[in-house]
Amino acid sequence: MTAESDSKITENPDSIHLPLPSDPSINLISPLSFLRPSDDSSHLQCLLILNQPIRLDTAFFTNLWNSTSLHICADGGANRLLEYSRIHPALEKCIPDYIIGDLDSLKDDVKDFYVSKGTKLKKQASQYYSDLDKSISLINVLVNFPSLDIYRMDDYNELEETEKKETERAERIEFSDMKDISVLVVGGIGGRFDQTIATISRTVQSFSVRPFITFMLLNSEHPEFVVLVPRGKNFISYERTDDGLRNVGLIPFSGPVSITTRGLKWDVRDWETKITGDLSLCNLQTGEEGIYIETSGDLFVNIEFDEPLTSKLTDQGEAS
């Protein structure tokens, strides 16, 4: 780190007053809003389960399930869900709406069980698209192009190709008719490193062509969420508690960016960050109401959540 770079860093006390901004030009990111049911008809929340062991607290998982109106398993993610629900029988009523992928990882007994409960299968055999890609395409078609019959599409890649064309057509009118979608991804972060990087890569690529879809990635190995912060002015609304300072990392996976922050232990101003250079890692949240981030390009931010996080959420009761 150069002296010039160091001069752009400010060390703050452990708690600073940083109110929720009223400026409409600032993009508001509210992680906890992903975990409560949405009453906005123009916005849908979806839970997407990938093929990694589920190690979430059951009350937390119940909140995730009940706050989302569409439940998708990507191929072997269905195996993970059934394994998890058999360990915690109260969750056996958590039945996914769809299972999608090339279905090579889906166990026969898992398939038979969920189909008997009403789950729909959609095979897409192409190896060009990942199971995450296929899931995102399915979600977008179900929410924004409901007139399309996915079962008239072939079992190779017609779903992805059709969704791509429809999304490109919608872009010409600036996505004016598209519903906003929030996708909570379980199983995309943690575990194998290459799978984690694949999730990051596909999330960036999806957001570049579908800016109406936002993602929250839950780490399967550590109590934290990862969000993609878009270019511009942003405020992550996440009220501090008395349980100590939360760890925060800002990671410019998409390339070098210049950032200005407020609400971190080590805030920066017009500071260049890149994978091969300076990085703001192992930072801490000091802003009482959240963190302000202005960035010249897309940026991933990981923030620890408090345990148990469910104490902050409206009690949803048993999974329904």
UniProtKB/TrEMBL annotation:
Keywords: ATP-binding, Kinase, Nucleotide-binding, Transferase. Pathway: Cofactor biosynthesis; thiamine diphosphate biosynthesis; thiamine diphosphate from thiamine: step 1/1. Its EC number is 2.7.6.2. Residues 232-299 form the Thiamin pyrophosphokinase thiamin-binding domain. InterPro entries: Thi_PPkinase, Thiamin_pyrophosphokinase_euk, Thiamin_PyroPKinase_B1-bd, TPK_B1-bd_sf, TPK_catalytic, TPK_catalytic_sf. GO terms for biological process: thiamine diphosphate biosynthetic process; thiamine metabolic process. This is Thiamine pyrophosphokinase.
